[in-house]
Amino acid sequence: MFKQLVKYPAYIFKFAIYILFLCFAVLFYFSNINAEINQNIRTLYSAMLFLYGAYRSVRTYQDFQKEIASNHEQ
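RESULT FIELD:
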């Protein structure tokens, strides 16, 4: 898969962005950057970031597999 990923650099960029979302979610949850923010709000925000990053990563992977399959048929 990684050899094929090099052929499609746009997907490398997309995966990097969504992994960044996942990292920000974890960092925001475990850090005490904004101590005045309620823990429930911080948990909710972290969960939303994590779910969005995970969802978009899965969708990007599915799109990547479809593009590989369509290029092999040609």
